[in-house]
Amino acid sequence: MEKRDAEMTQPRAAHRRVWLVADDYGISPAVNAAIRDLAARRRLSATSVMVAAPSFERTEAARLAALGATTTFAIGLHLTLTAPFRPLSAAFQPTRAGAFLPLAALMGRAALGRLDRPALAAEIAAQLAAFETAFGRPPDFVDGHQHVQLLPAVGETLFTAIKVGAAMVFALEYAARLWSVAGHSPRKLSPAQDRIEYALSSLGIIDLLAFLPASIALIAGQRSLLVLSGVLPFFKLVRYSPAMRSLLAAFHAERRTLVGCLVILTGAVLVFASLLHAIEHDVQPEKFGTIPQAMWWAIVTLGTVGYGDVVPVTPLGKLVSVFTIVGGLTMIALPVAIISTAFADEIRRRDFVVTWGMLARVPLFSHLSATEIADIMRLLRARTIEAGDVLVRRGDPASSMYFITAGEVEIELPNQRVRLSDGTFFGEIALLHRTKRSGTVTATRKTKLLALDAQDFHALIERMPALAAHVQKTAKARLADTAAVQRGDIAAGEIAQAAEDDQPADE
After folding, report:
1. What are the residue ranges of helices labelled H in 41-87?
2. In this prediction, what percent of the chain has a pLDDT beyond 70?
3. Range list of β-strands (E), 5-97
4. Whole-prediction pTM value?
5. Distance (Å, whole) CA 37 – CA 43
6. 82 Cβ neighbours under 8 A, 6+ residues apart
7. What span, in angstroms and rounded, lies between the C-alpha atoms of 39 and 47?
8. Angle, to 10 degrees, between the axis of helix 103-111 and the axis of helix 152-180?
9. For the purposes of burial, counting CB atoms within 10 Å of the CB of 475, is it exposed (0-12), middle (13-18) or buried (19 or more)?
10. What distance in Å separates the CA atoms of residue 274 and residue 294, rounded to the nearest whole number?
11. What is the mean pLDDT of residues 409-420?
12. Is 502 helix (H, G, I), strand (E, B) or coil?
């Protein structure tokens, strides 16, 4: 027992996921069969397909696609540009006897800048199109046979081809959203008004910027603008990231205060720039000859950057600089404090809604008012367990119930195993009477929980007679529910929620 406890207290090594990828799918029937066999046995994470290889055909694609549909198996494109394989585009040059050049010859032409970029782009587009025709979707990733994607001209052309494809996908998504948004506005607007409202919304503008600047850069041939526009689709994460939405909500909530900070900062820049101009313009006319020239020094100093390219030399100018630096610390701290406080409030508000929703799902609390549920929320204690850690063991005294905020646990019952994940709960019966744990609960991955202790819960209802009346009304029905699970702390409804959560995945 002591040895096992010592092992459990030792820190666990951090898990790192490794992807094992087999390339050259399509090079021969034997290789194809071996890759499919390994993938079916979950020995591989992904494979990359040679659409220009002789042993790749629709039947091979169908077999691989069927395998990818049943497992978490990624399928990518293995870009092929070397002999003995033949190009898919008719105008590709250079070739030897109708086939690609050997790798050494291709590397030499790439190093000398003698590859035909339009022909290379057409071949890459042809192989991407062949992949989409075979699998009905774009590849999960792109690599190169004999690492041809690392050659200068090939890498740049591949980047452009991927950018063209991405711009087309984002453009189609924008058009689909613009068309389908009609009739979904809560304000009952006309279809045209709904579309204009979406186009002018923040999410609509982000969707437009995801493809429009890149399309203009591709048409104009401006590589620097193309690289810059490549980061714009990142902002689409706002639609899917709760953290980014919370940050934007914090900015929006404090927008008037932040504008006030900007006005104060502008005033401080003008005041200190005017002072330094009056003090230093005779000594350093090339740097402080005008107030706009002095404003550069004021902005750099108030921003606590201090490049050192413009500095006062007179004693009075240096004294003013001291006050400017101190004022700059205030100017930086003020908006940072405002934004961080607003962001923390937004996170707390979001967590309150999520936690309130979890509590309201518990049958024992389903008839309580919002105020009563808020009182219970104050009793919750946060707890985090690592993957493989045991939270409770079967037969231990049960004195608290748990809510899973993030992660997953497996409950080992006498006759079955069930898994519960985000937003679920277990151990409700432990709040009603003394009992024992129905099963052993183990974390399958890092899990964050909220624990509600029975002693704290009973102390609360003793102070609140109205809450006690609500609880007593529900308690008898909930206690009868434990008969299906060996009279323990797990109710049948809590096991049913695991089956309900798995239902969409099965479908």
Report:
1. 58-70
2. 85
3. 21-25, 46-49, 74-79
4. 0.55
5. 9
6. 100, 101, 102, 103, 106, 145, 146, 148
7. 9
8. 80
9. middle
10. 7
11. 84
12. helix
Pairing of strands 381-385, 435-436: unpaired
Q: How many residues does the chain have?
A: 507
For the chain, give the mean pLDDT: 81
Q: What is the mean pLDDT of residues 412-438?
A: 77
- Residue 7 pLDDT: 43
Q: Which residues are paired to 381 by β-bridges?
A: 451
Provide the sign of the torsion angle of the four alpha carbons 87, 92, 97, 103, taken in this order. Answer: negative
DSSP bridge partners of 442: 390, 410
Nearest to 86 by CA among 114, 50, 110, 58: 50
Burial 315-338 (b: 16+ CB within 10 A, else e): eebeebbeebeebbeebeebbeeb
Strands (E), 422-498: 425-426, 435-436, 440-443, 447-453
CA distance 318 to 313: 7
- What is the distance, to the nearest Å, from the Cα of residue 354 to the centroid of all Cα atoms in its chain? 19
What are the structure tokens assigned to 470, written together? 């609500």
Spell out the residues 6+ positions from residue 157 whose beta carbon is closer than 8 angstroms to its own.
117, 120, 121, 124
As a whole number of angstroms, the distance between CA 273 and CA 269 comes to 6
First-to-last C-alpha distance (Å) of the chain: 44
CA distance 225 to 46: 33
What is the H or E stretch that residue 176 is in? helix 152-180
pLDDT tens for each residue of 255-290: 899 999 999 999 999 999 999 999 998 889 888 889
Helix H or strand E segment including 141? none
Question: What is the C-alpha to C-alpha distance for residues 191 and 198, in angstroms, rounded to an integer?
Answer: 11
Mean pLDDT confidence for 207-212: 86
